[in-house]
């Protein structure tokens, strides 16, 4: 294959070591199966070196992972052999941290540049060194099966054997995510950072980051193979895109408006490429500052057979729409004007929707005359709603105020506000026999609707979020009887459980108390206490009466209020 200067540099090893920091313990490529041990008549070598799998699978152009168990020794010798390919290198692996495992990383794309640059390890504490054998091929490693053998000594007998199966790969999936504009392109260097800061979506607010995840491509090895010493992954990727084999492009990436044909020019400065060789994925991160609001962009990636990764041209595509940056209040009509309405109780709240990426931060304030009712930073939820909860206990119903949402580059939005009578609730939860997975609440009445939540008694020790065992579906305002709740975390033995009435503070009919770490969907509070009832569960037929639980005592209620921060409002 006549590719233009496809070379591997020593940076391959460094890159994979960096990746291993966040990858940690990675599931091996290939189906787990018992290894095939070969006993040495003079020494039980299989007790110290072996393969963890009988078979490993990899896509051509990707990174093959071969796990070696090194129990009781620090070094081993591994040979990869294919007579058909004329390929039989032997490498020495060193278990530097003596954890009994070395993960060999074989770049199946970069073999033309020599054996020393083809191998890496999954942990920076370990090392791999080419020892001997033919390891150069005119193309990336040929498709087929390779026999694997491992020895405790260079000249010793094989202690174990396995197989590496190399097949054509190619792109199989392509999807988009978004992350808040407070991050820069350079803030993403690991897949953990990407998943922790982004969500899958096809809607992106202008200025936020859009991320494309390319799956099953076998592309990581090809990118690393183009990486010169000290060169960025982004530059190596652009070099890969720019390669040609005669009249054929090796690979192609485009981001284009289908209506106008206008395209985004990709260069090393406006894209961040994050490799995930452990699962064959590659992430591409770009900024949307200069993209047009209201336009759809189609993102396409394709590789041809000239790449050596596929046997025929294969491509995938995805799309996203750029939206304006805005945030709105949830309001209702009052005196002919859209008004943000809240309540004179400890669970007072303001809520709304936004186009911003989840995890973006907004500033919410409410003022009545010269008094500040609340001023707080809120985080956008995954469904792009936001909510601010605060305490208006003692505030006179009928009080009017002004509410504002701003920040994160949105145009400031201000609406009038109005305080209604405080919300009320009651709940009855009897002692009952239970299988530990399902409980039944006798009745609950909630003036504005919400959820019934089952807490364990760690709630009384201040663990408001951690104590949640299960939650009902959203319940409309009014009375509901025999509310059956399936527990996400079942009770394994009998004891007390707490049934509590929770508000829907951001009015999205989804229970967000846990995901918001107690900021949203807080309990109904009356007379300074959460509205709750305690019942005893007899799990596994241990018995129990069917009377109304004792509820909260004064000390337990105080602890719970402290945990939730439900204190009287201090005014300016």
Automatic annotation (TrEMBL):
Record keywords, A-Z: Cell membrane, Cell wall, Glycoprotein, Membrane, S-layer, Secreted, Signal, Transmembrane, Transmembrane helix
Annotated DUF7827 domain residues: 45-150
Protein name (database record): BGTF surface domain-containing protein
Transmembrane annotation, as ranges: 551-569
Subcellular location: Cell membrane; Secreted, Cell wall, S-layer
Lineage top rank: taxon: Archaea
An example Gene Ontology CC term for this record: S-layer
Pfam family, one: DUF7282
Organism of derivation: Halomarina halobia
Family per record: Belongs to the halobacterial S-layer protein family.
Domain DUF7282 as annotated: residue spans: 425-535
UniProt xrefs under InterPro entries: DUF7827, PGF_CTERM, Slg1/2_DUF7282, Surf_glycop_sig_pep
């Amino acid at each position: 294959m006549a590719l233009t200067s496809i070379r591997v540099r020593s940076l391959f090893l460094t890159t994979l070591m960096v990746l291993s920091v966040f990858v940690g313990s990675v599931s091996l490529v290939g189906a787990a199966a018992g290894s095939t041990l070969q006993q040495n008549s003079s020494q039980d070598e299989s007790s110290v070196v072996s393969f963890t799998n009988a078979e490993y699978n990899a896509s051509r152009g990707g990174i093959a992972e071969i796990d070696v168990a090194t129990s009781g020794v620090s070094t081993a010798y591994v040979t990869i052999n294919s007579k058909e390919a004329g390929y039989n290198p032997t490498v020495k692996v060193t278990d530097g941290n003596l954890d009994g495992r070395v993960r060999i990383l074989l770049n199946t794309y970069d073999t033309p540049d020599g054996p020393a640059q083809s191998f890496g390890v999954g942990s920076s504490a370990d090392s791999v060194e080419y020892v001997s054998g033919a390891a150069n091929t005119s193309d990336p490693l040929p498709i087929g099966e390779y026999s694997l053998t491992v020895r405790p000594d260079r000249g010793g007998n094989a202690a174990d054997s396995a197989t590496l199966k190399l097949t054509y790969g190619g792109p199989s999936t392509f999807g988009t995510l978004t992350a808040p504009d407070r991050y820069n392109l350079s803030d993403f260097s690991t897949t953990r950072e990407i998943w922790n800061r982004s969500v899958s979506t096809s809607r992106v607010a202008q200025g936020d980051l859009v991320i494309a995840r390319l799956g099953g491509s076998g592309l990581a090895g090809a990118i690393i193979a183009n990486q010169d010493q000290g060169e960025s992954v982004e530059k190596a990727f652009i070099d890969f895109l720019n390669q040609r084999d005669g009249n054929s492009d090796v690979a192609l990436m485009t981001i284009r408006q289908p209506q106008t044909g206008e395209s985004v020019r990709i260069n090393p400065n406006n894209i961040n490429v994050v490799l995930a060789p452990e699962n064959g994925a590659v992430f591409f991160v770009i900024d949307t500052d200069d993209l047009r609001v209201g336009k759809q962009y189609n993102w396409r990636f394709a590789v041809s057979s000239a790449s050596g990764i596929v046997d025929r041209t294969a491509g995938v595509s995805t799309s996203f729409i750029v939206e304006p940056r805005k945030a709105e209040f949830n309001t209702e009509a009052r005196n002919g004007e859209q008004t943000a309405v809240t309540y004179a109780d400890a669970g007072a709240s303001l809520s709304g929707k936004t186009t911003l990426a989840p995890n973006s931060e907004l500033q919410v304030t409410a003022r009545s005359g010269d008094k500040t009712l609340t001023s707080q930073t809120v985080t956008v939820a995954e469904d792009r709603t936001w909510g601010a909860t605060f305490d208006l206990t003692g505030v006179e119903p009928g009080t009017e105020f002004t509410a504002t949402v701003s920040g994160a580059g949105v145009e400031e939005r201000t609406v009038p506000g109005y305080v209604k009578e405080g919300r009320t609730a009651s709940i009855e939860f009897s002692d009952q026999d239970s299988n530990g997975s399902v409980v039944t609440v006798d009745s609950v009445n909630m003036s504005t609707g919400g959820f019934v939540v089952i807490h364990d008694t760690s709630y009384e020790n201040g663990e408001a979020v951690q104590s949640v065992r299960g939650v009902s579906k959203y319940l409309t305002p009014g009375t509901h009887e025999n509310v059956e709740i399936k527990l996400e975390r079942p009770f394994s033995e009998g004891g007390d459980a707490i049934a509590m009435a929770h508000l829907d503070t951001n009015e999205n009919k989804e229970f967000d108390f846990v995901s918001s770490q107690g900021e949203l969907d807080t309990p109904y509070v009356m007379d300074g206490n959460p509205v709750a009832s305690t019942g005893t569960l007899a799990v596994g037929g241990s018995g129990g009466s069917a009377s109304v639980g004792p509820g909260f005592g004064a000390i337990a209620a105080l602890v719970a209020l402290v945990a939730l921060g439900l204190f009287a409002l201090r005014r300016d």
